[in-house]
């Protein structure tokens, strides 16, 4: 399965082989330079830092785009107390 996604600041290519997904990302030169510098200073790979960034921010992106989608469809919001109750977080 192959997939290409275009974002304003990068392009992501993806394909799946043997249960793993490989991504090729085109980044602005400034971001690539920062990522390369960090990798060299720490002895880790650029792949490590890209993976960490995705894992750290994916849930936030999911939440944001779900909320934006609900807003665009004029669906009613869910009050905080109801969210807490559904997640069993209420006091």
Looking at this protein, list some descriptive labels.
single chain, alpha+beta, 3-stranded antiparallel sheet
Question: Could you outline the blueprint of secondary structure elements for this entry?
Answer:
Layout: E1 2-6, E2 11-17, E3 20-26, H1 29-42, H2 46-72, H3 80-86
Antiparallel strand pairs: 1-2, 2-3
How many domain modules? 2
- State the total count of DSSP E strands: 3
Could you tell me how far the N terminus lies from the C terminus, measured between alpha carbons in angstroms?
Answer: 46 Å
Shape: elongated
Helix content: 40-55%
Task: Please give the count of helices.
Answer: 3
The helix/strand series, from N terminus to C terminus, equals EEEHHH
Summing up helix and strand content along with how strands pair, one would put the structural category as alpha+beta
Name the assembly state. Answer: single chain
Main beta sheet strand tally, sense and closure: 3 strands, antiparallel
Spans of at least 5 consecutive residues whose pLDDT stays below 50 are none
Strand percentage, roughly?
Answer: 15-25%
Q: Quick check: average pLDDT?
A: 81
Name the strands of the widest sheet in spatial order. 1-2-3
If you had to describe this structure to a student in words, what would you say it looks like?
The protein has 91 residues and is α+β, with helices and mostly antiparallel strands. The chain folds into two domains: 1-44, no CATH class; 45-91, no CATH class. Helix content is 53%, strand content 21%. It is built from three helices and three strands. The chain has helices at residues 29-42, 46-72, 80-86; strands at residues 2-6, 11-17, 20-26. A three-stranded antiparallel beta sheet has the order 1-2-3, with no helix packed on it. The longest helix has 27 residues, at 46-72. It is elongated, with a radius of gyration of 18 Å. The termini are far apart. The model has no long low-confidence stretch (mean pLDDT 81).
């Amino acid at each position: 399965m192959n997939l290409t996604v275009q974002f304003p600041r990068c392009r992501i290519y993806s394909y799946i082989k043997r249960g793993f997904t490989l991504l090729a990302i085109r980044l602005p030169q400034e971001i690539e330079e920062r990522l390369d510098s960090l990798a060299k200073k720490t002895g880790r790979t650029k792949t490590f830092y890209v993976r960490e960034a995705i894992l750290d921010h994916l849930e936030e992106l999911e939440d944001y785009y779900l909320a934006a989608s609900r807003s665009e469809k004029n669906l009613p919001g869910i009050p905080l107390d109801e969210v807490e109750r559904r997640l069993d977080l209420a006091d």
